[in-house]
Amino acid sequence: MNYRFIIKRPLYSILLVSAMSWYKWENKDKESYHDDKTRYLTMSLRDKRKQYDCGHNYSTLADIQTWGHFSRTRCPEFEVNHELNEKVSIFVGDITAIEVDAIVNAADHQLTGGGGVDAVIHNAAGKHMLRLECQTLNGCPTGTSKITGGYKLPAKYIIHTVGPKGEQPDQLRDAYRSALDLMGERQLKSIAFPCISTGVYGYPNEEAANVALKTVRQWLESSPHSIHVERRIYQISNDMVVTVEMRDNHLDDPYHPYICSYTQF
After folding, report:
1. Alpha carbon of 209 to those of 56, 60, 142, 204, 243: distances in Å?
2. Alpha carbons 234 and 103: distance in angstroms, whole number
3. 45-261: what fold?
């Protein structure tokens, strides 16, 4: 009698059943995120507002003033374009509470929702649902972007982009441009950006803002998709506002020092 066969056969059967169970569980999860994504994307605005993680504390485009309400034209690097001014806004607040077509997530390469704004966005969207969809995207290299559903966010979609570590202007420019290009390809009309790479990645605030505004100005002037755009919003942190206000506090409005330094439109 072959005792080795008697011992090993049950173990093989257990492993086979376990592998089949795991396969069914994984595919069930993938089907689950797809169903959830479709449900959130197709429900009416009225119904979706009842699902927002932020409750009633959301901001619509009508609530956010355009660049023209803030900007001054002192020594602008670009000629002022009033039409473009009406397509750009500065927003101080919670990016997960803005009702737009897409918000941008400053993501890591694995799209895991690690820390900072990345973690905040994942939690507000519904961490389990968003994680499942992100797992299907096979990561995201620096300077590129991937798109997912917005789930429980006021935003319909999340565009995940990976910025550089440290001051790397070309890579930061690629991150912004790839997000804008993806927005254009999907024919989305409004987008909100956080400050990419200025947190733990260590990109200096002023230099990062300069790259961001130059990139969007050039994209608006050159991309064939820009004609469909209604608004681009830059969300800045309270820390950035305080820092700039202290540097140039002789101006009455604390937002103006930041905007005057980077009036690109």
Report:
1. 30, 23, 18, 9, 13
2. 10
3. Leucine Aminopeptidase, subunit E; domain 1 (3.40.220)
Residue 58 tokens, joined: 């959301």
Query: Of the ranges 55-64, 168-177, 216-225, which is most confident?
Result: 168-177
Q: Mind listing the pLDDT tens digit for each residue in 103-112?
A: 999 999 999 8
Are 257 and 251 in contact, with CB atoms under 8 Å apart? Answer: yes
pLDDT of 194-219, one tens digit each? Answer: 889 888 888 888 888 889 888 888 88
Residues 21-40: tens digit of each pLDDT: 545 545 555 557 788 888 88
Question: Rounded to whole angstroms, how far apart are CA atoms 118 and 124?
Answer: 10
Q: List % helix, strand, coil for the chain (3-state, nearest 5).
A: 50, 10, 40
- Classified as helix, coil or strand, 247 is helix
> Residue length, the chain?
265
pTM over 0.85: no
Q: Find the Cα–Cα–Cα–Cα dihedral 69, 71, 77, 80, rounded to 10°.
A: 30
Q: Could you tell me which residues come within 8 angstroms of residue 112 by beta carbon, excluding any fewer than 6 positions away? A: 131, 134
Helix (H) or strand (E) holding 215: helix 205-222
HSE-up of residue 163 (Cα within 13 Å, Cβ side): 28
